[in-house]
């Protein structure tokens, strides 16, 4: 009886969610999305490690995450710098969750390290084969980030992932919308398996999008699946929530913010952001990069204005700190801005890049506002991914690679320069920077 009632609530919520989704789609015509991938049923021994991915866990440490069906499987990672020769061993923790009729496997999180920079490690999980390999990032420039948001699990996703695999990158950044499970919990599992070849070999740093929020009022916390499976270094960066955190790699300080948690002046996120920005040392990390899901500079009709509130609350902090680049997702298209602040181009603002074109089942967002705003430099509704190669403290090469059917075509490319050494970080903005130290 009780289960029946719960199922009815779930169906009702799903129906409502679909209704809102259709309301959005009605505003613009998306081209035919590609088919959702088919995952054949492929049972594995219950202690077999699945959905392996790695992420940063503080200086010189990496968190290895995997799932086993076996409840008694140990949260142990064995690792070393030559194949099948595990000189080190780390014990971690595990969690699991249930979502109505669904029960997750055992989700293991094990931190390994200290690790050498720019080194290939061989490892295995739960004392079981197979062996995986991961390369740690360099400690100095150059460093390359691959960036793609709104991935999902379609044939377009596969194409994007194939292109990313061909690029020599060190870290993957994902500005929200991972699996498009949308309440169907087993789709979190298929997504984990889909990305495993890439996500087990380079750190994947993610933040949440609307598709991570599987909220059912009173009954379910919106982010239970996401938080259980994609644990990010929030504790390591002084944050109280997995929905926002920061990390440093080579000379880059990266902040991952939450578009779907409180961001007003009195919120934890706002105060954490202010504290985190005021600790940034531009000598040590000349580049300052921010990611979140809902874009602030967006001239597409899709999701128009949705980022305005967060922008009003937080943009002054980012401006005061001299953020170089902001990456967002949400809109299924690509757009790059000039440096901008307060809705206008501004040489001391950030470059805003929308890269929500990873390839999910909803298709592309085609319609743009006319005339094109003066701050917008390049906009195109195609699937693809981005690469940010930071060469040194002042120069970075940004490129956007469109999926032309299954070929990747470098369609937008530009040299970006950091605000280091510019007027923006000296005299002129000292007044503005006060906001970071005010109580
Ligand atoms: C195993 O690794 C250790 C240290 O990483 C190394 O000293 C040793 O030679 C390796 N053994 C083999 C057989 O490769
Ligand atoms: C940084 O890299 C750019 C592009 O390769 C180069 O032109 C510039 O001279 C470099 N700057 C320094 C300080 O090495």
Shape designation: globular
- The poorly predicted ranges are 13-30
Give the termini separation: 53 Å
- CATH topology of the largest domain, what is it called? Purple Acid Phosphatase, chain A, domain 2
Per CATH, the class of the largest domain reads Alpha Beta
Mean pLDDT: 91
CATH superfamily label of the largest domain: Metallo-dependent phosphatases
Percent range of helical residues: 10-25%
Work out the oligomeric state of the chains in this entry.
Answer: single chain
Largest sheet: 8 strands, mixed
Proportion of β residues?
A: 25-35%
Q: Give a list of the ligands.
A: 2-acetamido-2-deoxy-beta-D-glucopyranose
Q: Tell me the number of helical segments per DSSP (H or I, 4 or more residues long).
A: 7
State the secondary-structure class.
Answer: alpha+beta
**Tally of structural domains:** 2
Estimated radius of gyration: 21 Å
> Could you say what the CATH architecture of the largest domain is?
4-Layer Sandwich
Strands, total number: 24
Describe the 3D structure:
The structure is a single chain. The chain is of the alpha+beta class and 439 residues long. The protein has 2 domains: 50-135, Purple acid phosphatase-like, N-terminal (Immunoglobulin-like), CATH 2.60.40.380; 143-437, 4-Layer Sandwich (Purple Acid Phosphatase, chain A, domain 2), CATH 3.60.21. Helix content is 20%, strand content 30%. It has 7 helices and 24 strands. The strands form 5 sheets. Strands 14, 15, 16, 17, 18, 19, 20 and 21 form an 8-stranded mixed β-sheet that branches. A 6-stranded mixed β-sheet has the order 13-12-11-22-23-24. A 4-stranded antiparallel β-sheet has the order 1-2-8-5. α5 runs parallel beside α6 and α6 (308-321) packs across α7 (430-437). The longest helix has 24 residues, at 2-25. The chain starts with a helix and ends with a helix. One 2-acetamido-2-deoxy-beta-D-glucopyranose is lined by residues 391-392, 394-395. Its cofactor is Fe cation; Zn(2+). Keywords: Glycoprotein, Hydrolase, Iron, Metal-binding, Signal, Zinc. This is Purple acid phosphatase.
């Amino acid at each position: 009886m009780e289960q029946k009632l719960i199922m009815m609530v779930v169906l009702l919520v799903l129906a409502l969610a679909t209704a809102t989704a259709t309301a959005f789609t009605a505003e613009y015509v998306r081209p035919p999305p590609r088919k959702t991938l088919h995952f054949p049923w492929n049972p594995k021994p219950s202690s077999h490690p699945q959905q392996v991915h790695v992420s940063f866990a503080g200086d010189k440490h990496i968190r290895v995450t995997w799932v086993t069906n076996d409840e008694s499987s140990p949260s142990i990672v064995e690792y070393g710098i030559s194949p099948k020769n595990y000189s080190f061993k780390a014990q971690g923790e595990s969690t699991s969750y249930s979502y109505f009729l669904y029960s997750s496997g055992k989700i293991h999180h094990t931190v390994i390290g200290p690790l050498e920079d720019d080194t290939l490690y061989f490892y295995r999980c739960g004392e079981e084969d197979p062996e995986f390999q991961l390369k740690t990032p360099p400690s100095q420039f150059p460093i390359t980030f691959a960036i793609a948001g709104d991935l999902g699990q379609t044939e377009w996703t596969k194409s994007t992932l194939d292109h990313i695999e061909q690029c020599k990158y060190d870290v993957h950044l994902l500005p929200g919308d991972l699996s498009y499970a949308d309440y169907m919990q087993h789709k979190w599992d298929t997504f984990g398996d889909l990305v495993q070849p890439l996500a087990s070999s380079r750190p994947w740093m993610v933040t949440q999008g609307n598709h991570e929020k599987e909220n059912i009022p009173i009954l379910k916390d919106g982010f239970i699946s996401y938080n259980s499976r994609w644990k990010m270094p929030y504790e390591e960066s002084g944050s109280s929530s997995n929905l926002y955190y920061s990390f440093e790699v080579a000379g880059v300080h990266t902040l991952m913010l939450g578009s779907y948690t409180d961001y007003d002046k009195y919120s934890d996120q706002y105060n954490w952001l202010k504290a985190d920005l005021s600790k940034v040392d531009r000598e040590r990390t000349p580049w300052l990069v921010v990611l979140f899901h809902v874009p602030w500079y967006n001239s597409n009709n899709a999701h128009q204005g949705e980022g305005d509130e967060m922008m009003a609350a937080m943009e002054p902090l980012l401006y005061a700190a001299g953020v170089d680049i902001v990456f967002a997702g949400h809109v299924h298209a690509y757009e790059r801005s000039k440096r901008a602040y307060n809705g206008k181009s501004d040489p001391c603002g950030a470059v805003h890049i929308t890269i929500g074109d990873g390839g999910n089942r909803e298709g592309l967002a085609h319609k743009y506002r006319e005339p094109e705003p003066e701050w917008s430099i390049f906009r195109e509704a195609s699937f693809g991914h981005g690469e940010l190669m930071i060469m040194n403290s002042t120069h970075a090469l940004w490129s956007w690679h469109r999926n032309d059917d299954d070929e990747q075509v470098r369609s937008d490319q530009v040299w970006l320069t950091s605000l280091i050494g510019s007027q923006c970080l000296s005299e002129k903005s000292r007044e503005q920077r006060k906001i970071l130290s005010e109580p």
